[in-house]
Amino acid sequence: MQKGQIRVQTENIFPIIKKFLYSDHEIFLRELVSNAVDASQKLKTLSSIGEAKGELGELRIDVVLDAKEKTLSIIDRGVGMTGEEVDKYINQVAFSGAEEFMQKYKDANIIGHFGLGFYSAFMVSDKVEIFSKSHKEGSGVYWSCDGSPEFELYEVDYNQRGTKIVLHINEESKEFLEAGRIRGILERFCKFLPIPIYFSEAGETKKEDEVEQSINNTDPIWIKKPSDLSKEDYEKFYKELYPYNETPLFWIHLNVDYPFNLTGVLYFPKIKQSYEIQKDKIQLYSNQVFVTDEVKDIVPEFLMLLQGVIDSPDIPLNVSRSYLQGDPNVKKINAHITKKVADKLDEIFRTERNALEEKWESLGLFVKYGMMTDDKFLEKANKFLVMEDTDGKFHTLEEYKTATETLQKNKDGKQVILYTTNPVQQDAYIQAAKEKGFTIIKMETLVDAAFINTMEMKWDNVSFVRVDADIVDNLIDKQESNEMVLSKEEEEQLKNLFTLDISDLHVTTEIKGLSTGAAPVVATRPEFMRRMKDMGAVGGGMTAFYAQMPDEVTLTVNGNHPIYQTLLKEKNTETQQKQVKNLADLALLSQGLLKGNALTSFINRSVELLQGNKDA
Question: Which PANTHER family does the annotation name (predicted)?
Answer without folding.
Answer: HEAT SHOCK PROTEIN 90 FAMILY MEMBER
